[in-house]
Design a protein that fits this description.
Layout: H1 2-8, E1 17-21, H2 32-39, E2 48-51, H3 57-70, E3 76-83, H4 94-105, H5 109-117, H6 140-150, H7 155-174, E4 184-185, E5 191-192, H8 203-207, E6 231-238, H9 240-245, E7 252-261, H10 271-283, E8 292-295, H11 300-310, H12 313-319, H13 340-343, H14 350-365, E9 369-376, E10 380-388
Helix pairs in contact: 6-11, 10-11
Length: about 400
C-alpha cells in the first residue's frame, strides 16, 4: 500500500474505499484491509473491507471495486491482496480450545483445577493448516495429479512447462520487465528487492524429484507446482473521468469479467476453461483478438490440462454445454514473463499481479486486449478482459 502511494502520488484522502483479499486469515486482523490501510497512513475516514475467494481473492477485490465505481458509490478505489505463508495461524485441537474457553469462565480455584486435571496429552496436538478442500478433504496437489492423469499429461510435459515458466521469469527479471516489485525490509533479515523464487533448473535435476502427493506413481512434484510464499499487491482503480480530471493517464481498462464454479472434486482446477469463453462472449471478442494471456499457474499439470480442455470439442460438448471448443491460447502469447510456478503464489495477492502484468505486457508488446484467468479452491474460477488504454 505504501508502495502504491509512492508510485502513483495519489493523495491519501482522495481514496474513497479500500478492498483487500486474503485466504488464511489471522484472527487478530480479520479485516486486514482496514488494519493495513491504517498502518500505511491512509485516512481513518476511508472505509475498508476484506474479501476471501481462495486463489482469486484479489480478483474479487478488484471487481468489487469496479462494481462500487460503476454503481456511483466511489470514484477511487484501492484493491489488492495479501498472504503471509511464513507465519500462518496454527490452532490448538478442538478439545483444548473447548477446555480453555470453559476455563476462562471458571470462577473458583476448584473449578479451574478440576478442568486442568482433565487435560490429556493428546489435547496438545496442534491442528496444522493444509491446502485441502473442506468439501472433499482432498489436497489441491492430489486434485492436480488426478487432473493430469485424466488428460494424459506426462511428468516430462509438466517439468518442461515448469522449466519454461522459470526460464521466462528469469529473462523478464534480467531485462527489468518485472518493474512493480516494491523493496521490503524483512525484520531481522535483508531487504527483499526482487522475487526470489525464480530458479531455472534442468530437466535432469527436476526429474530426480519424487512425487509430492500421489506416491509413488504421481507426476506432480515440488518442481512443477507453484510454491507458497509471502506477498502483497495493490492496484489503483478509478473511473476514467476521475483519473483524467486528476491528471492521471490510466494503464488499462478493466473491461469485462466473469466468475464460474463447478464440481470441486473432479473439476477443481478447470476454472479458466469454463470462464474464458464466457468472458470472451461478454466482451464480444474471440480468442484470436487476445494479444496477451496471463493465467494463474497453480501446477504445470493444471495449466496443461486447461489448455487441452479448451482445445477439445468433446469436452466443450459433454461438460460445458457448448457446440464447439473455444481453443487453446498460443504459447507465444501465454505467460511470457513467467507465472506462479516461478514467481510464487501468495494466495490473496496473485490476482492483481496477473492483471498488472497483462497491462504492462500489452504496452510493451503493442497489443490491445489481454485475458486474465485463474482457478480457485472450491471449484471456482475467474476471467477478466484487460484493454490497453490508448497511448
Amino acid at each position: 500500500l505504501r508502495g502504491l502511494l509512492t508510485r502513483t502520488n495519489v493523495p491519501r484522502d482522495v481514496v474513497d474505499y479500500i478492498v483487500y483479499g486474503t485466504v488464511i486469515q489471522e484472527v487478530k486482523t480479520s479485516n486486514v484491509a482496514r488494519e493495513a490501510a491504517l498502518g500505511a497512513g491512509f485516512s481513518d475516514k476511508t472505509p475498508a473491507h476484506t474479501v476471501t475467494m481462495a486463489c482469486i481473492s484479489s480478483n474479487q477485490a478488484m471487481t468489487t471495486g469496479v462494481g462500487m465505481i460503476a454503481a456511483g458509490q466511489c470514484d477511487v478505489v484501492v484493491a489488492g491482496g495479501v498472504e503471509l505463508m511464513s507465519d500462518v495461524p496454527i490452532r490448538h485441537s478442538r478439545k483444548m480450545r473447548k477446555t480453555m474457553l470453559t476455563l476462562n469462565r471458571a470462577k473458583t480455584l476448584g473449578q479451574k483445577l478440576s478442568l486442568i486435571s482433565k487435560i490429556r496429552p493428546d489435547y496438545f496436538a496442534p491442528e496444522l493448516p493444509a491446502v485441502a478442500e473442506f468439501s472433499t478433504s482432498e489436497t489441491m496437489g492430489h486434485s492436480a495429479d488426478r487432473l493430469a492423469a485424466a488428460f494424459g499429461i506426462s511428468r516430462r510435459e509438466q517439468d518442461e512447462y515448469a522449466l519454461r515458466s522459470h526460464t521466462l521469469a528469469k529473462k523478464a527479471q534480467d531485462e527489468g520487465l518485472l518493474q512493480d516489485v516494491v523493496p521490503f525490509k524483512v525484520p531481522g533479515k535483508d531487504t527483499v528487492t526482487k522475487d526470489n523464487g525464480i530458479r531455472p533448473s534442468s530437466m535432469e535435476q527436476m526429474g530426480k524429484l519424487k512425487p509430492a502427493f500421489v506416491k509413488p506413481y504421481g507426476t506432480v512434484t515440488a518442481a512443477n507446482s507453484s510454491f507458497l510464499t509471502d506477498g502483497a499487491s495493490a492496484i489503483l482503480i478509478m473511473s476514467e473521468e476521475k483519473a483524467l480530471a486528476m491528471g492521471y493517464k490510466p494503464k488499462a481498462y478493466l473491461r469485462d469479467f466473469v466468475y464460474v464454479s463447478q464440481d470441486p472434486k473432479d473439476q477443481l482446477l478447470l476454472g479458466p476453461t469454463y470462464a474464458t469463453p464466457k468472458v470472451l462472449e461478454k466482451a464480444g471478442l474471440s480468442l484470436s483478438d487476445i494479444d496477451v494471456f496471463e493465467f494463474h499457474e497453480a501446477f504445470a499439470g493444471q495449466i496443461l490440462a486447461n489448455l487441452k480442455a479448451m482445445d477439445s470439442d468433446w469436452f466443450a460438448q459433454n461438460y460445458m454445454g457448448r457446440k464447439s471448443k473455444v481453443g487453446a491460447p498460443p504459447l507465444d502469447k501465454f505467460n511470457t514473463w513467467g507465472g506462479s510456478l516461478s514467481l510464487g503464489h501468495p494466495f490473496g495477492a496473485t490476482g492483481c499481479r496477473l492483471v498488472i502484468t497483462a497491462a504492462h505486457r500489452l504496452k510493451k508488446e503493442g497489443g490491445q486486449y489481454g485475458l486474465v484467468a485463474a482457478c480457485a479452491a472450491g471449484g471456482q474460477g475467474h476471467a477478466m478482459i484487460v484493454e490497453l488504454y490508448p497511448q
